[in-house]
Write a structure and sequence with these properties.
The structure holds 2 protein chains of 2 kinds. Chain A has 8 helices and 1 strand, in the order αααβααααα. Chain A has helices at about 5-20, 25-45, 50-75, 85-110, 120-125, 130-145, 150-170, 175-200, and one strand at about 80. Chain B is α+β, with helices and mostly antiparallel strands. Helix content of chain B is about 60%, strand content about 20%. Chain B has a 3-stranded antiparallel sheet with strand order 1-3-2. In chain B, a hairpin with a 2-residue loop joins strand 2 and strand 3 (about 70-80). Classes of the chains: A mainly alpha, B alpha+beta. At the A-B interface, helix 1, helix 3 and strand 1 of A face helix 3, strand 1, helix 4, helix 5 and strand 3 of B.
Protein backbone atom coordinates (compact mmCIF):
# COMPACT_ATOMS: atom_id res chain seq x y z
CA UNK A 1 0.00 0.00 0.00
CA UNK A 2 1.33 3.41 -0.92
CA UNK A 3 2.03 6.07 1.69
CA UNK A 4 -0.72 8.57 1.03
CA UNK A 5 -2.45 10.48 3.75
CA UNK A 6 -5.32 12.37 2.28
CA UNK A 7 -7.80 12.00 -0.54
CA UNK A 8 -6.40 15.22 -1.97
CA UNK A 9 -2.97 13.57 -2.19
CA UNK A 10 -4.49 10.57 -3.96
CA UNK A 11 -6.33 12.81 -6.39
CA UNK A 12 -3.24 14.93 -7.01
CA UNK A 13 -1.07 11.86 -7.65
CA UNK A 14 -3.61 10.46 -10.12
CA UNK A 15 -3.89 13.78 -11.92
CA UNK A 16 -0.14 14.43 -11.96
CA UNK A 17 0.69 10.99 -13.33
CA UNK A 18 -1.51 11.84 -16.28
CA UNK A 19 0.34 15.08 -17.00
CA UNK A 20 3.94 13.99 -16.43
CA UNK A 21 4.20 12.76 -20.02
CA UNK A 22 5.52 16.10 -21.29
CA UNK A 23 2.93 16.26 -24.05
CA UNK A 24 1.41 19.48 -22.83
CA UNK A 25 4.88 21.05 -22.69
CA UNK A 26 5.64 19.99 -26.27
CA UNK A 27 2.32 21.40 -27.47
CA UNK A 28 2.74 24.73 -25.65
CA UNK A 29 6.33 24.95 -26.92
CA UNK A 30 5.18 24.22 -30.47
CA UNK A 31 2.52 26.89 -30.13
CA UNK A 32 5.05 29.51 -29.01
CA UNK A 33 7.64 28.53 -31.62
CA UNK A 34 5.09 28.43 -34.44
CA UNK A 35 3.84 31.85 -33.42
CA UNK A 36 7.43 33.12 -33.59
CA UNK A 37 7.82 31.53 -37.03
CA UNK A 38 4.56 33.18 -38.10
CA UNK A 39 5.91 36.62 -37.19
CA UNK A 40 9.18 35.77 -38.90
CA UNK A 41 7.27 34.73 -42.05
CA UNK A 42 5.38 38.05 -41.85
CA UNK A 43 8.62 39.90 -42.42
CA UNK A 44 10.04 37.57 -45.05
CA UNK A 45 6.93 36.81 -47.13
CA UNK A 46 5.00 40.03 -46.46
CA UNK A 47 1.88 38.09 -45.50
CA UNK A 48 0.16 38.54 -42.15
CA UNK A 49 0.81 35.05 -40.74
CA UNK A 50 0.76 36.36 -37.16
CA UNK A 51 -2.95 37.12 -37.55
CA UNK A 52 -3.97 33.58 -38.47
CA UNK A 53 -1.25 31.67 -36.60
CA UNK A 54 -3.02 31.44 -33.18
CA UNK A 55 -6.15 30.00 -34.84
CA UNK A 56 -4.19 27.62 -37.07
CA UNK A 57 -2.08 26.41 -34.17
CA UNK A 58 -5.07 25.75 -31.92
CA UNK A 59 -6.78 23.86 -34.76
CA UNK A 60 -3.64 21.76 -35.31
CA UNK A 61 -2.10 21.44 -31.84
CA UNK A 62 -5.24 20.54 -29.86
CA UNK A 63 -6.24 17.47 -31.95
CA UNK A 64 -2.58 16.33 -32.01
CA UNK A 65 -2.41 16.62 -28.22
CA UNK A 66 -5.63 14.62 -27.77
CA UNK A 67 -4.45 11.95 -30.25
CA UNK A 68 -1.02 11.76 -28.56
CA UNK A 69 -2.69 11.30 -25.16
CA UNK A 70 -4.67 8.38 -26.57
CA UNK A 71 -1.75 6.78 -28.41
CA UNK A 72 1.08 7.40 -25.92
CA UNK A 73 -0.27 8.05 -22.42
CA UNK A 74 -3.36 5.84 -22.16
CA UNK A 75 -1.80 2.57 -23.37
CA UNK A 76 0.95 3.01 -20.77
CA UNK A 77 -0.78 4.14 -17.61
CA UNK A 78 -4.34 3.24 -18.46
CA UNK A 79 -7.48 5.24 -18.93
CA UNK A 80 -9.03 7.51 -16.34
CA UNK A 81 -11.96 9.85 -16.39
CA UNK A 82 -11.55 12.64 -13.84
CA UNK A 83 -15.15 13.75 -14.27
CA UNK A 84 -16.26 17.36 -14.37
CA UNK A 85 -13.18 18.62 -12.53
CA UNK A 86 -10.85 17.11 -15.12
CA UNK A 87 -12.91 18.49 -17.98
CA UNK A 88 -12.85 21.93 -16.40
CA UNK A 89 -9.07 21.78 -16.24
CA UNK A 90 -8.85 20.76 -19.88
CA UNK A 91 -11.20 23.58 -20.77
CA UNK A 92 -8.98 25.97 -18.80
CA UNK A 93 -5.99 24.84 -20.90
CA UNK A 94 -7.87 25.43 -24.12
CA UNK A 95 -9.25 28.77 -22.98
CA UNK A 96 -5.85 29.85 -21.66
CA UNK A 97 -4.17 29.06 -24.98
CA UNK A 98 -6.85 31.00 -26.83
CA UNK A 99 -6.52 34.00 -24.53
CA UNK A 100 -2.71 33.90 -24.64
CA UNK A 101 -2.65 33.67 -28.45
CA UNK A 102 -5.22 36.34 -29.00
CA UNK A 103 -3.61 38.60 -26.38
CA UNK A 104 -0.21 38.38 -28.04
CA UNK A 105 -1.81 38.95 -31.43
CA UNK A 106 -3.71 41.97 -30.11
CA UNK A 107 -0.55 43.49 -28.61
CA UNK A 108 1.43 42.76 -31.73
CA UNK A 109 -1.22 44.30 -33.99
CA UNK A 110 -1.45 47.43 -31.86
CA UNK A 111 2.32 47.68 -31.63
CA UNK A 112 2.70 47.60 -35.38
CA UNK A 113 -0.28 49.88 -36.19
CA UNK A 114 0.73 53.04 -38.01
CA UNK A 115 -2.08 55.36 -36.88
CA UNK A 116 -1.97 57.53 -33.77
CA UNK A 117 -2.86 56.12 -30.35
CA UNK A 118 -3.11 57.38 -26.73
CA UNK A 119 0.09 58.18 -24.85
CA UNK A 120 -0.46 55.47 -22.24
CA UNK A 121 -0.56 52.86 -24.95
CA UNK A 122 2.71 54.26 -26.30
CA UNK A 123 4.20 53.90 -22.81
CA UNK A 124 3.02 50.30 -22.61
CA UNK A 125 4.50 49.55 -26.00
CA UNK A 126 7.72 51.24 -25.06
CA UNK A 127 8.01 48.41 -22.53
CA UNK A 128 6.00 45.96 -24.66
CA UNK A 129 8.45 43.09 -24.28
CA UNK A 130 8.38 43.34 -20.48
CA UNK A 131 4.58 43.62 -20.49
CA UNK A 132 4.29 40.51 -22.65
CA UNK A 133 6.80 38.72 -20.41
CA UNK A 134 4.77 39.65 -17.34
CA UNK A 135 1.58 38.54 -19.08
CA UNK A 136 3.16 35.19 -19.98
CA UNK A 137 4.41 34.72 -16.41
CA UNK A 138 0.92 35.52 -15.09
CA UNK A 139 -0.80 33.10 -17.48
CA UNK A 140 1.79 30.40 -16.73
CA UNK A 141 1.21 30.88 -12.98
CA UNK A 142 -2.54 30.62 -13.51
CA UNK A 143 -2.09 27.35 -15.38
CA UNK A 144 0.44 26.09 -12.83
CA UNK A 145 -2.04 26.74 -10.03
CA UNK A 146 -5.07 25.34 -11.89
CA UNK A 147 -3.32 22.19 -13.08
CA UNK A 148 -0.93 21.72 -10.17
CA UNK A 149 2.04 21.64 -12.58
CA UNK A 150 4.80 23.59 -10.88
CA UNK A 151 7.11 23.52 -13.89
CA UNK A 152 4.81 26.00 -15.63
CA UNK A 153 6.00 28.63 -13.14
CA UNK A 154 9.50 28.01 -14.50
CA UNK A 155 8.34 28.54 -18.09
CA UNK A 156 6.66 31.80 -17.08
CA UNK A 157 9.78 33.04 -15.32
CA UNK A 158 11.94 32.02 -18.28
CA UNK A 159 9.68 33.98 -20.64
CA UNK A 160 9.76 37.01 -18.35
CA UNK A 161 13.57 36.87 -18.06
CA UNK A 162 14.05 36.43 -21.81
CA UNK A 163 11.62 39.15 -22.80
CA UNK A 164 13.06 41.58 -20.26
CA UNK A 165 16.54 40.88 -21.66
CA UNK A 166 15.07 41.25 -25.15
CA UNK A 167 13.76 44.69 -24.24
CA UNK A 168 17.14 45.95 -23.04
CA UNK A 169 19.17 44.19 -25.72
CA UNK A 170 16.67 45.07 -28.49
CA UNK A 171 16.29 41.45 -29.60
CA UNK A 172 13.55 40.65 -32.15
CA UNK A 173 10.29 39.38 -30.63
CA UNK A 174 10.08 36.38 -32.96
CA UNK A 175 13.53 35.13 -31.97
CA UNK A 176 12.59 35.28 -28.31
CA UNK A 177 9.40 33.32 -29.01
CA UNK A 178 11.43 30.73 -30.90
CA UNK A 179 13.88 30.42 -27.99
CA UNK A 180 11.07 30.10 -25.39
CA UNK A 181 9.23 27.59 -27.58
CA UNK A 182 12.37 25.53 -28.18
CA UNK A 183 13.26 25.40 -24.47
CA UNK A 184 9.72 24.29 -23.55
CA UNK A 185 9.72 21.67 -26.33
CA UNK A 186 13.10 20.37 -25.08
CA UNK A 187 11.76 20.10 -21.50
CA UNK A 188 8.65 18.34 -22.83
CA UNK A 189 10.78 15.90 -24.86
CA UNK A 190 12.89 15.13 -21.77
CA UNK A 191 9.74 14.50 -19.71
CA UNK A 192 8.28 12.33 -22.49
CA UNK A 193 11.47 10.24 -22.65
CA UNK A 194 11.39 9.82 -18.87
CA UNK A 195 7.69 8.88 -19.03
CA UNK A 196 8.27 6.29 -21.78
CA UNK A 197 11.05 4.68 -19.73
CA UNK A 198 9.04 4.69 -16.52
CA UNK A 199 5.91 3.29 -18.13
CA UNK A 200 6.81 0.81 -20.87
CA UNK A 201 4.01 -0.66 -22.97
CA UNK A 202 2.47 -3.67 -21.26
CA UNK A 203 2.26 -6.87 -23.26
CA UNK A 204 -1.20 -8.38 -23.51
CA UNK A 205 -4.50 -6.88 -22.51
CA UNK A 206 -4.35 -6.08 -18.82
CA UNK A 207 -7.75 -4.60 -19.14
CA UNK A 208 -9.45 -7.93 -18.76
CA UNK A 209 -7.66 -9.11 -15.65
CA UNK A 210 -10.49 -7.80 -13.50
CA UNK A 211 -12.97 -10.04 -15.28
CA UNK B 1 -17.54 -3.31 25.42
CA UNK B 2 -16.77 0.34 26.11
CA UNK B 3 -18.56 3.18 24.23
CA UNK B 4 -15.40 3.86 22.25
CA UNK B 5 -15.23 0.20 21.17
CA UNK B 6 -18.79 0.44 19.89
CA UNK B 7 -17.67 3.11 17.42
CA UNK B 8 -15.18 0.82 15.74
CA UNK B 9 -17.78 -1.92 15.44
CA UNK B 10 -19.66 0.32 12.98
CA UNK B 11 -16.69 0.51 10.64
CA UNK B 12 -17.26 -1.33 7.37
CA UNK B 13 -14.80 -4.22 7.55
CA UNK B 14 -14.93 -4.82 3.81
CA UNK B 15 -13.53 -1.32 3.21
CA UNK B 16 -11.28 -1.39 6.29
CA UNK B 17 -8.90 -3.94 4.72
CA UNK B 18 -5.86 -1.83 3.60
CA UNK B 19 -5.77 -2.96 -0.05
CA UNK B 20 -9.51 -2.46 -0.53
CA UNK B 21 -9.34 0.88 1.27
CA UNK B 22 -6.64 1.95 -1.21
CA UNK B 23 -8.80 0.87 -4.15
CA UNK B 24 -11.83 2.70 -2.73
CA UNK B 25 -9.76 5.87 -2.18
CA UNK B 26 -8.47 5.85 -5.74
CA UNK B 27 -11.85 5.25 -7.28
CA UNK B 28 -13.47 7.82 -5.00
CA UNK B 29 -11.40 10.70 -6.44
CA UNK B 30 -12.15 9.91 -10.10
CA UNK B 31 -15.26 9.33 -12.16
CA UNK B 32 -13.93 6.04 -13.54
CA UNK B 33 -10.63 4.34 -14.29
CA UNK B 34 -9.51 1.15 -15.94
CA UNK B 35 -7.65 -1.76 -14.39
CA UNK B 36 -4.23 -0.67 -15.63
CA UNK B 37 -4.54 2.86 -14.23
CA UNK B 38 -5.72 1.53 -10.89
CA UNK B 39 -2.84 -0.95 -10.78
CA UNK B 40 -0.24 1.79 -11.37
CA UNK B 41 -1.82 4.06 -8.81
CA UNK B 42 -2.18 1.46 -6.08
CA UNK B 43 1.04 -0.45 -6.78
CA UNK B 44 -0.80 -3.76 -6.37
CA UNK B 45 -0.18 -6.93 -8.39
CA UNK B 46 -2.81 -7.80 -11.04
CA UNK B 47 -3.94 -10.89 -9.12
CA UNK B 48 -4.26 -9.06 -5.83
CA UNK B 49 -6.09 -6.12 -7.37
CA UNK B 50 -8.40 -8.41 -9.30
CA UNK B 51 -9.28 -10.42 -6.21
CA UNK B 52 -10.08 -7.33 -4.10
CA UNK B 53 -12.03 -5.74 -6.93
CA UNK B 54 -14.19 -8.83 -7.17
CA UNK B 55 -15.03 -8.59 -3.46
CA UNK B 56 -15.94 -4.93 -3.81
CA UNK B 57 -18.00 -5.71 -6.90
CA UNK B 58 -19.84 -8.51 -5.09
CA UNK B 59 -20.69 -6.06 -2.29
CA UNK B 60 -22.11 -3.67 -4.89
CA UNK B 61 -19.49 -1.00 -4.16
CA UNK B 62 -17.73 -1.16 -7.52
CA UNK B 63 -19.30 -1.35 -10.93
CA UNK B 64 -17.40 -2.95 -13.80
CA UNK B 65 -18.56 -1.93 -17.25
CA UNK B 66 -17.27 -2.69 -20.72
CA UNK B 67 -17.07 0.31 -23.00
CA UNK B 68 -15.30 1.47 -26.12
CA UNK B 69 -12.67 4.21 -26.16
CA UNK B 70 -11.57 5.01 -29.72
CA UNK B 71 -13.11 1.74 -30.92
CA UNK B 72 -10.95 -0.18 -28.43
CA UNK B 73 -12.78 -2.22 -25.79
CA UNK B 74 -11.82 -1.40 -22.25
CA UNK B 75 -13.12 -2.13 -18.79
CA UNK B 76 -14.15 0.87 -16.75
CA UNK B 77 -14.24 0.59 -12.98
CA UNK B 78 -16.26 3.06 -10.95
CA UNK B 79 -17.72 3.37 -7.49
CA UNK B 80 -21.47 2.87 -7.38
CA UNK B 81 -23.70 5.25 -5.40
CA UNK B 82 -23.79 2.58 -2.69
CA UNK B 83 -19.97 2.40 -2.77
CA UNK B 84 -19.56 6.18 -2.48
CA UNK B 85 -22.02 6.34 0.40
CA UNK B 86 -20.31 3.41 2.12
CA UNK B 87 -16.93 5.10 1.77
CA UNK B 88 -18.27 8.39 3.18
CA UNK B 89 -19.83 6.50 6.08
CA UNK B 90 -16.57 4.63 6.66
CA UNK B 91 -14.63 7.90 6.85
CA UNK B 92 -17.15 9.35 9.29
CA UNK B 93 -17.04 6.30 11.54
CA UNK B 94 -13.25 6.06 11.60
CA UNK B 95 -12.94 9.79 12.29
CA UNK B 96 -15.53 9.58 15.07
CA UNK B 97 -13.69 6.67 16.65
CA UNK B 98 -10.27 8.30 16.41
CA UNK B 99 -11.60 11.59 17.78
CA UNK B 100 -12.83 9.74 20.86
CA UNK B 101 -9.40 8.26 21.60
CA UNK B 102 -7.53 9.91 24.47
CA UNK B 103 -4.39 11.94 23.61
Amino acid sequence: MTKQNTLRDVEKKAYMSYHQDGLIDIMVGLYAAAFGLGIFADKVLDFNFAVIMPGIMIAIVLPIWIAAKRKITMPRIGYVNFGARGSNKLFAIFLGLMVAGLGVFFLFTLATAQNGRPVWIDTIFQYGMIVIGLGAALIASLFAYTMGLKRLHGYGLLTLALFTSGHFLALPFEYLLLIVGSVIIACGAALLTQFLRRYPLQKGDMDNVAQ
Amino acid sequence: MSPSDEGIQNVDRLIHEPSRLTIMMHLYVVESADFQFLQYQTGMTPGNLSSHLRKLEDAGYVEVTKEFVDRTPHTALRLTRKGRDAFKEYRRNVKRFIDKLPE
